[in-house]
Amino acid sequence: MIKLTNINKYYRQGDHRFHVLHDINLSVDQGELVAIIGESGSGKSTLINIIGFLDDDFSGTYFYEDHPIHDYTRKQFSHLQNQNVGFVFQNFKLIREATVAENVALPLLYTGKRRREIGDRVTAVLDQVGLHGYEDQLPQNMSGGQQQRVSIARAIVGHPHFLIADEPTGALDTETSQEIMNLFKRLNRDEGTTIIMVTHDPHVAAQCERVVKIIDGRVVSDSLEVHHADK
After folding, report:
1. CB atoms within 10 A of CB 72
2. I want to staple 165 with a disulfide (CB 3.0 to 4.6 A). Which of 13, 58, 74, 197 is the partner?
3. Are 215 and 201 in contact (CB under 8 A)?
4. Helix and strand tally (H, E) in the chain?
């Protein structure tokens, strides 16, 4: 589904050019649960910005479903992002003054779905993430774990082809982090959702089927985990 070939990324700051990603070669198949692990500054966030169609300023080739994304026009590239990827962030990025249902419905509003259809889909995904009956709540009145569940519901409401979760447990306590990880694993196992999860937490990474480690902008290991006892 995703294939990166010899990806290099540079940032320019004044007269200096910084080489952030070095010859990244990475493939992700449909249905995988992959952790990308690395310390702060390792390049993992830069990499997922490229994978998630947020950044097309790089050298090398990105094939998505066997098509090089550099062939797309700017409008097609934007459509590619909106239709294919859902994002889950460490700090949730919810609209505090909007209800849970309004937050979750946002991606569907952009696609012009009918109001009844949106309502039915929002109810279904809230059930899926364990928030039945929370439609009219405000995120600011909810716990961190509940807010992350809202964020996940928003990410999956449009049936994206894959999810990118950027440190999704980073702001949560240990018990809540495990509840969120269990939800991701259930989505992957029961719905076949492809998930690419960025983390610096080895315990989180160990629960994924595959772990890609990045140091200083280079992939230094890419391994399948052999223990799935709690998946």
Report:
1. 16
2. 197
3. no
4. 7, 10
- Indicate the angle between helix axes 115-128 and 100-110, nearest 10 degrees: 120
Contacts of 172 (CB under 8 A, 6+ apart): 144, 145, 148, 180
β 162-166/194-199 pair status: parallel
The gap from C-alpha 187 to its chain's centroid, in whole angstroms, comes to 13
Q: Which domains does the chain have, with CATH numbers?
A: 32-45+83-224 (3.40.50.300)
Q: How many residues in total does the chain contain?
A: 231
Between 115-128 and 144-156, two packed helices, what is the crossing angle to 10 degrees?
A: 130
The pLDDT of residue 203 is 93
Instruction: Give me the chain's average pLDDT, please.
Output: 94
Structure confidence at residue 225 (pLDDT): 63
| 51 CB-side CA count, 13 A | 32
Mean per-residue pLDDT for 86-100?
96
Asked if residues 108 and 158 have their Cβ atoms less than 8 Å apart, the reply is yes
- Contact at 8 Å (CB) between 217 and 45? no
CA distance 1 to 31: 10
Assess whether pLDDT exceeds 50 at residue 53: yes
| Phi, psi of 151, rounded to the nearest 5 degrees | -60, -40
Please give the pLDDT value at position 227: 45
pLDDT at 229 over 80: no
For residues 188 and 195, is the Cβ–Cβ distance under 8 A? yes
**Which amino acid, residue 1?**
M
Q: What is the pLDDT of residue 228?
A: 44
Q: Do 43 and 217 meet the contact criterion of CB atoms below 8 Å apart?
A: yes
